[in-house]
Amino acid sequence: MLANKLIEKGDWIHYIHTDSEASSVGRRNRALDPLLQATRVGILEVVMAILNKYPEAADSFDENGRNILHISVEQKHRFIYDYLMNFVAYKDRMLADIDFRGNTILHLATCVGNPTRSPPGLSRNQLVVDDVDGQWNTDFHVEAKRGSFGVVNQMSWDVLWFKRVKHDSYPHLWHLRNLDGKAAEELFEENHAALREEAEKAAKHVSDNLIIVAILIGTINFAVLLALPGGFDQNTGIPMLLKSNRQEVQFFMVYIGLALFFAVLSLATLMLIQLSRFDTNDFHIAIPLKTIISCLTIIYSTGFSATAFAQGYILEGWKSHALS
């Protein structure tokens, strides 16, 4: 509501450019374009209000020759990007635009980090792009917590974002080189080399700890499976309580078996993480999927172990009742 009122009262003659030739001449001396600023800071409501009132404002460019779609990709504002791709009539032209440094929209998707979740103490320009020379700063993760799993999530998000933009962009832009002679994929690998190394260390550190937990849970359940409450018949080898309370013993064995199964499955998944090559594409699906599977299986194994523990108390009660 407030955005609509401000837009209606504002004088937009300084921001709307119907002449396609009105490019860089005098552009640096104009007032800051509200549409560009709203796109840069990620205010979707303002972007929608401006484009609904003045659709031709989508032709705006910043001082680096980047349109609002470029800026949304560069700043990783997903909701603004989705809105521009689905509801703006000029999206095909915006996708094909190239900035003053020869960067396509795919080049702009190679920046490191998500500015909306930047670490404390780092500004938006430090994290994503230096507006003076248009060069990306890839050192943000140095200030992040080392050893945490956040760098793995960040790497996965950056890979996913790059592939998303690549899917939407034109194929002839995929291998186009900028003024520095770099294609988008080459620039992505260069910008994310340090982050990928940090993500590999973090993933291995987390999997090392989870392997210890999985081995511990599996060992305990395997030992319990060989020493059921009540003991075994010396002649037949059948659990003693199986004769008097077969159903409760079967439940106990099922819980122990499931806990052992999920512990082994988690251990196998964690070993696959350890043996991964940790290429860039591995962070797209493989590493996140293996991590989710290993965490879920450990949770299930722990849950079934706790259930078996409770069932063991029930069996001990039956044992005491039988002895009495």
From TrEMBL:
Protein name per Swiss-Prot or TrEMBL: PGG domain-containing protein
PANTHER family assigned to the protein according to its UniProt record, in alphabetical order: CASKIN, PROTEIN ACCELERATED CELL DEATH 6-LIKE
Transmembrane intervals: 210-232, 252-273, 293-314
Pfam family, one: PGG
Domain PGG per the UniProt entry, residue ranges: 202-313
GO cellular component, one term: membrane
Organism: Camellia sinensis var. sinensis (China tea)
SUPFAM superfamilies the UniProt entry points to: Ankyrin repeat
Lineage: Eukaryota, Viridiplantae, Streptophyta, Embryophyta, Tracheophyta
Coiled coil regions in record: none
Keywords: Membrane, Transmembrane, Transmembrane helix
